[in-house]
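Q: Given only this backbone (339 positions), what sequence would you predict?
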C-alpha cells in the first residue's frame, strides 16, 4: 500500500475510533489465514500504541465463507456471549478505503499453528486442563441460539443438519472437474445414516487446533468465524476431535492437545448438555468428508488461476488422506455394529 493509501486508511480508522491524531506505524501481511487475509496493524493515538488486526478478503474464496460484515457480526455475538475472542472494533464496507471491505479487531498474543502447538512443551504439560477449558469455550458458543436478528443472514437447516451438509458437499463435488468415487460413497453412507438432531445452536464450524490462539497454556482467542452456522452442536464437538486436526499427535484425540474425555468433561460442565457419544463417530466421518471437499476447493483456487499459491496447491493434495480417513472410520463403525 502506498503513502496515499495508508493516509486514507489512517483517516478512516481515526474517524471510526473517534480521534484526530491516529497514525499508522506498521501494516504487514500476516502468515496463516488460508482463505482470508490478515494484516498486522500498529497505530499510535497520541502517545499510546495499539496493536490491531485488519481482516479482509483474499483474491479468491470458498463458496461457504461469510462476508467480512457477516463475520464481524458473528465475532460481536461471540464476544457478547463471553467467548474468548479478539475484541471486534470497526467494520468498513467501503471498498475505496482499502480496496475491499475489511474489519479491525484487537490483536491477541500467542500462536495458532497446529503443527507447532501440538509439539509445544507448555501446551503438552497443560494437556487435559487446556482442552477442558476449550470445551467450556465451545459451550459458550453453543449457548447462542436462533432466532437472532443480528445473525439473520444465517439460514436454519431445512430438516436434519446432517442432510443439509450432505447435499452441500455433493453439490460442491459436482462442480469439480473430476469425479471422486470415495467421497461419493462416503456421502451416500452419511445420507443413509443421518441422525435426527435434538437441537440447533450456533456452531463455529471450524473450532479446531489451528484456529485457537494459545499463549503458553492460556487461551487468548478463538479465530476464523467465516463458516459459522446454525447446526447440530455435536458437529462442532466431533470436528475438534477429528483425526485430521491432531497434526500427528494421534493419541491426544482432542485436537492433538489432550484427551477426548477431558474435552467432553469441560463441554458438558459448561453447557449442561451431555455429549452424544453415539453420534460423534458419524460426525467425524462428516468431518473427514468436509475437509476433503475443502482441500479440493483450495486446490482448484490455485489450478484455475484464481489465486496462485503453493499453500493452496499443497492443501489440494491433502484430499486423498481425508478420503482414507473417512473410509477407515466407516469401516470401524460398521465393524462395531456387526460385533
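A: Predicted residues:
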Amino acid at each position: 500500500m502506498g503513502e496515499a493509501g495508508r493516509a486514507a486508511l489512517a483517516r478512516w480508522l481515526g474517524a471510526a475510533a473517534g480521534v484526530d491524531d491516529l497514525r499508522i506505524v506498521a501494516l504487514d501481511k500476516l502468515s496463516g489465514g488460508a482463505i482470508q487475509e490478515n494484516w498486522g496493524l500498529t497505530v499510535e493515538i497520541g502517545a499510546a500504541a495499539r496493536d490491531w488486526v485488519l481482516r479482509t478478503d483474499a483474491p479468491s474464496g470458498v463458496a461457504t465463507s461469510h462476508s467480512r460484515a457477516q463475520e464481524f457480526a458473528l465475532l460481536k455475538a461471540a464476544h457478547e456471549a463471553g467467548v474468548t475472542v479478539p475484541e471486534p472494533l470497526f467494520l468498513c464496507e467501503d471498498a475505496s478505503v482499502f480496496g475491499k471491505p475489511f474489519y479491525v479487531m484487537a490483536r491477541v498474543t500467542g500462536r495458532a499453528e497446529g503443527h507447532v502447538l501440538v509439539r509445544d512443551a507448555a501446551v503438552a504439560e497443560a494437556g487435559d486442563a487446556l482442552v477442558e477449558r476449550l470445551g467450556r469455550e465451545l459451550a459458550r458458543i453453543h449457548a447462542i441460539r436462533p432466532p437472532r436478528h443480528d445473525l439473520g443472514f444465517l439460514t436454519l437447516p431445512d430438516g436434519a443438519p446432517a442432510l443439509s451438509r450432505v447435499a452441500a458437499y455433493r453439490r460442491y463435488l459436482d462442480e469439480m472437474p473430476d469425479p471422486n468415487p470415495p467421497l461419493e460413497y462416503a456421502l451416500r453412507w452419511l445420507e443413509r445414516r443421518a441422525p435426527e438432531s435434538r437441537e440447533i445452536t450456533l456452531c463455529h464450524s471450524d473450532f479446531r487446533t489451528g484456529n485457537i490462539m494459545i499463549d503458553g497454556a492460556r487461551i487468548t482467542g478463538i479465530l476464523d468465524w467465516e463458516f459459522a452456522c446454525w447446526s447440530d452442536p455435536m458437529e462442532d464437538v466431533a470436528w475438534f476431535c477429528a483425526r485430521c486436526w491432531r497434526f500427528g499427535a494421534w493419541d491426544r484425540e482432542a485436537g492433538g492437545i489432550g484427551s477426548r474425555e477431558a474435552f467432553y468433561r469441560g463441554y458438558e460442565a459448561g453447557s449442561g448438555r451431555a455429549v452424544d457419544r453415539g453420534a460423534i463417530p458419524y460426525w467425524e466421518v462428516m468431518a473427514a468428508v468436509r475437509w476433503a471437499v475443502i482441500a479440493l476447493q483450495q486446490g482448484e483456487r490455485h489450478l484455475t488461476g484464481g489465486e496462485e499459491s503453493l499453500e493452496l496447491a499443497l492443501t489440494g493434495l491433502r484430499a486423498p488422506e481425508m478420503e482414507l480417513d473417512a473410509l477407515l472410520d466407516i469401516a470401524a463403525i460398521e465393524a462395531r455394529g456387526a460385533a
